[in-house]
Amino acid sequence: MNKKNNYRKFLPYLMIFINICMNLAFISKENFSNEYYTAAVKSMLMNFKNFFFVSFDPSGFLTVDKPPLGLWLQAISAKIFGLNIFAILLPSIILSALVCFLIYKMMSNAFGETYGIISQIVFCFTPIVVAVSRTNNLDMTLMLFMTLAIYFAIKNCFMLSMIMLGLAFNVKMFQAYMILPALFVYFFMTNKFNLKIFGKFLISLIVLFVVSFSWTLIVELTPKDSRPFIGGSGSDNSVISLIFGHNGFDRLFGKKIANKNKFDFKPKVDDEFQKNFMESYKDNKRSKGFDEIGEPGFFRLFNLTGASMYEQISWLLIPALFSIVAIIFYKKLPFLTNEQIKIIILWGMCILPMIIFFSIAGFFHRYYLAMMAPNISCLFAATCYILKNILQKLQNIFVPLLYIVTFFIQICFIVQNGQYWLFIIMLIEFILSIILFLLHKKILFVSILISLITAPFVWSFYPILGKLNSVMPTAEINRKNFNFQHKNDSSLKEFLLKNASDEKYFFIISNCNVAANLILNTDLNIILANGFEGTDQALTLEKLKTMIKNNQVKYYMGNNAFKANNAINDWVKENATLIYIDDFNNKKLYCFQN
Predict the structure, then answer these.
(1) H or E stretch including 508?
(2) Percent with pLDDT over 70 in the chain
């Protein structure tokens, strides 16, 4: 008995170790991972102002389009270990391991060690989790603070739960609030309502908003000429516009520049800017990857063709959701305790807004789906617990039903992707499971678990063994060409280094990928004119003229892909000297000095 207990106690830490190894394997081939964020980290290390405001460029001209917490962690890691791939990815790797540990603790405390380990297995071999954990995107940071919010809610530490959710807001803004309704419901389920409890709830709510909007308030109160332009805010130069626009309503309703400043519900971007951007946006939609999510619809998460989200997250979604359905009939499930029922309700209410959002939302990237992983992992483990303990006659119905439906969808996807070797392996596992079911062997559940986890297990290794797109990471066999990576710009870099000087804004460029690469590989003063997507009016013609008058800028290179800065491009052509053509990036370099 003692040996068995020791064996089980060892397994959770083995899964954490496997999680870390999968995320560390071959990371040297990822170069600087997402160069847009890594360039910001380099700029943030230059001074406290850049660090606090999350400046993309060394001059503090423009911020990234995200709040600061995730990048602060990366900057601290780079400060300790140097600016290298290990330091940049270390926060994601550590935070992924912490999430793996937290879901084990929550499920093992409520359902037992076995089901805590099952939740870990599902989490570790969720393909999109592996892909995201191997990049410096901010989703693992978001996932940790959201999981901590759930953990402290279960521990009945609601104040700490709200603090964690407020910190999560400072990673990816409103995306964190998807679990807020679930936390509210859980709080009132676990506390008898009275004035004292209601007062505690109100205080916690105030704490949530103070933590969530503290950085925003400081930035908004800082004079605009004393801080960088807020990336992603359009023309407002406001964090509020970023929250409700680019990181808010734009995600739900899609990119509609006419509603760019959603907080005011009226456009502030001039008509010519809107017209030019939307024309360019449509032309470049596919090359920029904005259509990777397919068409909205309640079966989008099970889309097996085209922009597939199934392979990222949905392998075990159906059996995971069964636990939510099962508790509707909890009176027929006397083995479930009140605590277990509440935890299933909590996880169920956490994942429901995510399913709705990812089914109908107009604009997001597939790697955002990683936030569903802890929920699916814990709900799947709860389903295993329920199926293991229900009456034999119900077991004989629901176990094969859930297994066959899930297995059939997995097989359809695998065959569609030409993985016939995996099809043969899973078919053998299926036959063995049927034999064990007919013989009523105790090992049946282990066999089914292995069978259902085989495909996501294999898919989890594609981002490890293949070339990962660090800007929009996904786990898939054939890399779709949703790639932001810049073309070879070594000749441009050599030219700029040869003609380097100390102007405050030495080189203005509209291509975020080339800008990021130059910031990382030179010490030149590079600024990005119109933000990550080319939608920000950080650089206006009047501002450019003032810079030139003050001898603050030497070179300018526009971006033909986005025509939003046509007025600037036209003026530059007439008033600057064309001195260099970048054949690799198909851009023209202009100089403002004789």
Answers:
(1) strand 505-509
(2) 87
